[in-house]
Amino acid sequence: xxxxxxxxxxxxxxxxxxxxxxxxxxxxxxxxxxxxxxxxxxxxxxxxxxxxxxxxxxxxxxxxxxxxxxxxxxxxxxxxxxxxxxxxxxxxxxxxxxxxxxxxxxxxxxxxxxxxxxxxxxxxxxxxxxxxxxxxxxxxxxxxxxxxxxxxxxxxxxxxxxxxxxxxxxxxxxxxxxxxxxxxxxxxxxxxxxxxxxxxxxxxxxxxxxxxxxxxxxxxxxxxxxxxxxxxxxxxxxxxxxxxxxxxxxxxxxxxxxxxxxxxxxxxxxxxxxxxxxxxxxxxxxxxxxxxxxxxxxxxxxxxxxxxxxxxxxxxxxxxxxxxxxxxxxxxxxxxxxxxxxxxxxxxxxxxxxxxxxxxxxxxxxxxxxxxxxxxxxxxxxxxxxxxxxxxxxxxxxxxxxxxxxxxx
Length: 409
Prior knowledge:
The protein is α/β, with parallel strands linked by helices. The protein is built from 13 helices and 16 strands.
């Protein structure tokens, strides 16, 4: 029998946890608890390390997150306490601009291998997912040092929540690899995701990069239940529409914000009837729907006029087809066009091609609509005339106080 047991009476672990919980917003006191007594060590660590916000190290190669991996390697006793990790960008200033933070996939794979209880992963704005090195180029984690080799992607996790907000991915292959790190995702929130395909050969033969939407096929093939609350996507060809519809249908009960980007290309392969595959009418929780006209990347030897009538008609036809499918839950409609002054270029074409009748019908059918916003790129001498022309086409919306027109100078 331990003769010192009576000198150190043990409180129930639940009571210790409840007591230390009151210090959740006082990290200094929590750190003191870890040093005062081993009795409080576990409870204090639960509070200190449950949720971590990790900023990139600007002095590190590629401005990455390798120091966090080094921290996990040096303190394996901490890893089991980490349940939520958010990768953020180190705050920059006007006086000292910093490089874009890069999260290497191999570094991320090793980080995940140390976090068996991680249930929430958040990647915030401006993070660039890349793959700079081979797996064997990295220092092996402590628990892998006895292995013959480190298998990339072997540390698959089941996540309760994965949030990707404003993240850029180098290639579609890197995006597929990123998703393969997880065996299951119960809540997948995606916003403003862009895959940077490059290098590609432009008109002059030089390397160029273009931004497109997320890789829908990779999302639909992940084999998990995706719960999308916010999604942005750009369409290049008709095959993407049907796959994107499958993706949206799985989140019909959750999706609240949807942004669709349309390249102003006069020879789009997406026909107006193809848009029915999106099944917008089934999105019962959709509150905000945004349409954006984007410039296409010219193919080699091809010069495109993004202000041509055919290019603008292609975008407007797509919007008209989708407005007829708008769900009754909508509260906000947002349209963003790249225009010149009224009467020249695409401003006049917008007045002829846009589905003004379809817009008013959609606003009448969706009784919850509170705001219809047009964001236009114009010139000062044409703004007032163009605004009056739009207000005349949708007089019912103006009478209801729903219309808002903004001009980008």
